[in-house]
């Protein structure tokens, strides 16, 4: 473990000693986002997209081109407004942002008054490296501009827009629970010797200050108790996660958006799929150097932690904030529908670049891989009803 990882571990150990076992959500927040120490707070050369895992925009530029086709359709459905806003949350190093803007400009679907706003601390560093002006500096509106979340939400209230996120929600800290005798107990993180460990093979990673262990405790807060209501019955010992932050984020976005669409790309399930017996160990995983790790407590701050998204949660949260469901599909169908409309799949590739694009497309739609693991959710507010191209089944007879 690096010196940074040891410092982060000590910080968490000290908090547990002072407060007792902490919710897993708190542990995950430290591990991923602790300023100067957490995994995403230090993303770049040490870890993150491209080093520990690969995202769809990194597979090939065709992903951004096809997402841009959906954004363009949304813009036209909204009446081709001049003050168009695309707001991407979790924009990272701006691969998707730059590709979308380039494609929209090429399609003459990017009026001069439009803005692409990128919400992500890492986006600021990526923009600075590329010489991109900040959001309040003069410059071309075609450059993706890094902003903080409050500024992005204010922009959504000022006109028509599209909200985008790609693999944002799976990295939000989650609450963990386990079924015991017909009720749910919360999984907390404690220290060996301070509380009895849970019988879970993922518990027990050692380091400075002792081993982290999982402790089952009564659910203490009303928000979590409310979230547990109405979940399907499961067998004793079944583990699952609830992403309260994702619900809050979707509600906040839905309330802020005056008129437009919300497009969410992530991996996950409908609720009936998430609670199947084969997922009795939960969906939380760690990623390190493109390998799946089951030990959530090893390499604290040096490995990614993710959980599969409950799309039912996002749909319900959106409805509470005035967002109507437009469609939910898998990435394979979404990308194929747009590729067919654009004629990308016609004929044999005529150049090495065209072959690379075709191979990237195949990886993005591969069944059992990105194509069916990733889902695309579309929601709308005060926008024309009817299916968007990406949510029509391209394989239907």
Please characterize this protein's 3D structure.
The protein has 397 residues and is an alpha/beta fold. It folds into two domains: 3-38 and 175-242, no CATH class; 56-172 and 243-276 and 298-391, Rossmann fold (3-Layer(aba) Sandwich), CATH 3.40.50. The protein is built from 14 helices and 16 strands. Strands 2, 3, 4, 5, 10, 14, 15 and 16 form an eight-stranded mixed β-sheet that branches. Strands 1, 6, 7, 8 and 9 form a five-stranded antiparallel β-sheet that branches. Helix 4 (61-77) crosses helix 5 (95-106) and helix 9 (244-256) packs parallel to helix 11. The model is unreliable at 133-140 and 195-204 (pLDDT under 50).
Relevant terms:
single chain; 397 residues; alpha/beta; Rossmann fold; 8-stranded mixed β-sheet; globular
Topology:
Blueprint: H1 3-19, E1 22-23, H2 24-33, H3 56-59, H4 61-77, E2 85-89, H5 95-106, E3 115-119, H6 121-130, E4 145-147, H7 149-156, E5 160-166, E6 175-180, E7 183-191, E8 212-217, H8 222-228, E9 239-242, H9 244-256, E10 259-269, H10 271-274, E11 285-288, E12 291-293, E13 304-306, E14 309-310, H11 311-320, E15 324-330, H12 331-342, H13 352-364, H14 370-373, E16 374-381
Parallel strand pairs: 2-3, 2-5, 3-4, 5-10, 10-14
Antiparallel strand pairs: 1-7, 6-7, 6-9, 7-8, 10-16, 11-12, 11-13, 15-16
């Amino acid at each position: 473990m690096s010196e940074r990882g040891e410092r982060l571990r000590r910080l968490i150990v000290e908090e547990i000693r002072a407060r007792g076992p902490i919710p897993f959500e708190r542990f995950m927040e430290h591990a991923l986002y602790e300023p100067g120490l957490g995994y995403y707070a230090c993303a770049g050369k040490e870890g993150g997209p491209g080093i520990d895992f690969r995202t769809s925009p990194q597979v090939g530029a065709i992903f951004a081109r096809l997402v841009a086709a959906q954004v363009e359709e949304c813009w036209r459905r909204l009446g081709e407004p001049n003050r168009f806003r695309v707001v991407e949350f979790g924009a990272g190093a701006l691969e998707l942002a730059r590709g979308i803007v380039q494609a929209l400009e090429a399609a003459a679907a990017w009026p001069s008054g439009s803005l692409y706003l990128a919400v992500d601390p890492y986006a600021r560093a990526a923009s600075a490296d590329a010489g991109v002006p900040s959001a309040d500096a003069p410059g071309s509106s075609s450059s993706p501009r890094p902003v903080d979340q409050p500024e992005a939400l204010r922009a959504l209230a000022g006109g028509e827009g599209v909200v985008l996120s790609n693999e944002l929600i799976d990295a939000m800290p989650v609450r963990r629970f386990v079924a015991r005798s017909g009720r749910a107990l919360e999984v907390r993180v404690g220290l060996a010797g301070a509380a009895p460990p849970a019988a879970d093979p993922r518990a027990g990673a050692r380091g400075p200050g002792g081993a982290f262990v999982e402790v089952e405790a009564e659910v203490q807060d009303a928000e979590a108790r409310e979230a547990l209501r109405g979940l399907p019955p499961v067998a004793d010992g079944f583990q699952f996660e609830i992403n309260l932050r994702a619900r809050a984020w979707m509600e906040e976005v839905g309330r802020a958006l005056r008129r437009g669409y919300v497009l969410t790309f992530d991996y996950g399930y409908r609720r009936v799929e998430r609670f199947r017996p084969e997922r009795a160990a939960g969906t939380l995983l760690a990623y390190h150097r493109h390998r799946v790790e089951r030990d959530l407590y090893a390499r604290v701050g040096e490995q990614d932690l993710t959980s599969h998204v409950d799309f039912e949660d996002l749909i319900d949260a959106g409805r509470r904030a005035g967002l109507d469901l437009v469609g939910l599909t898998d990435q394979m169908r979404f990308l194929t529908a747009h590729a067919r409309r654009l004629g990308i799949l016609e004929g044999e590739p005529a150049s090495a670049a065209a072959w690379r694009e075709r191979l990237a497309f195949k990886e993005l739609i591969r069944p059992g891989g990105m194509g069916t693991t990733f889902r695309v959710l579309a929601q709308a507010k005060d926008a024309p009803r009817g299916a968007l191209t990406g949510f029509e089944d391209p394989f239907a007879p």
